[in-house]
Amino acid sequence: MAKTAGVDSIYVDLEHCTFSLDTTSQICMACLAVGIAPFVRVPSMDPSLIARILDGGALGIIVPHVESRAEAAAVVQAAKYPGQGKRSFSSALPHLRFNSVSAPVAMQAINAATTVVAMIESAKGVERADEIAGVDGIDILHVGANDLSNDLGVPGQTDHPLVREAYRRIWEACRGYRKHLGIGGLAAKPDFADELVRMGARYMTTGSDLGFLLGAATDRVAQLRSAYPVA
After folding, report:
1. What is the mean pLDDT of residues 75-102?
2. Stretch 104-122: mean pLDDT, rounded?
3. How many CB atoms within 10 Å of residue 134?
4. What is the rounded CA–CA span in Å between residue 8 and residue 10?
5. Catalytic residue among 16, 65, 95, 142
6. Most C-beta atoms within 10 A of its C-beta, which of 52, 184, 188, 209?
7. In terms of pLDDT, which residue wins out, 117 or 1?
8. Are 139 and 181 in contact (CB under 8 A)?
9. What does R_g of the chain's alpha carbons equal in angstroms?
């Protein structure tokens, strides 16, 4: 469905769902087969979990609540093979269609292909956005608008001036280190999302499968009830 819809990437949200690692890997491998980049939002910075998720077929990890340079660096160490990190090497990788590839070649290719996304979701993360962006191996600083608005004391106001200022500071950090700005949680604020894309955001999470399904179903039921009213 993602391929047909024309999206570039999907992510499996292990922070907020109960999917197993096996289910997550099956989704990732299906994405690899059709040319969609599979990312996984991890529930923690546990390096053993990050390694297993990446070994299972993910081409990127999204790490919530990153608040310091040390945390960002630890994530990169867990996600990247030697040369950039400390990830243990496995020869049976779905990314390579389980072909036998020499370790140096495979590690270099997988390192280059693996995206690391640090989520900024707190005032502390905003304050340290510049040092987080400066970590080699971090590719995207992705703003979690809902959690950030909560932490800033304006829950649900994802386009509040305080949130807007946070976006500006994070974008300046990204621009300074040639990293990408990511945005999400703005489905109800399309004008603000457009503004951020014009500012320079290049990674956007647009919604969830549950949200898309429920939204379409709700619209369809409302249409039918309007067309065929019953007493």
Report:
1. 94
2. 97
3. 16
4. 7
5. 16
6. 184
7. 117
8. no
9. 19
Q: Catalytic: 180? A: no
In the predicted model, what is the mean pLDDT of residues 77-84? 97
Cα–Cα distance for residue pair 98/1, rounded to 1 Å = 25
Q: CB of 133 within 8 A of CB of 174?
A: yes
Euclidean distance between CA atoms 177 and 188, whole angstroms: 30
**Residue 196: CB partners within 8 Å, gap ≥ 6?**
167, 181, 183, 186
> Which residue, 162, 156, 150, 157, is CA-closest to 122?
150
Encoded amino acid at 117, one letter: V
Report the distance separating Cα 178 and Cα 139, nearest Å. Answer: 9
Structure tokens at 134: 């400066």
Which tokens hold the place of 215? 């939204």
Q: What is the pTM of this model?
A: 0.93
- SS3 readout for 42-81: CCCCCHHHHHHHHHCCCCEEEECCCCCHHHHHHHHHHHCC
* Closest CA relative to residue 171, chosen from 211, 126, 112, 213: 126
Phi-psi region of 180 (alpha: psi -120 to 50; beta: other; left: phi over 0): beta
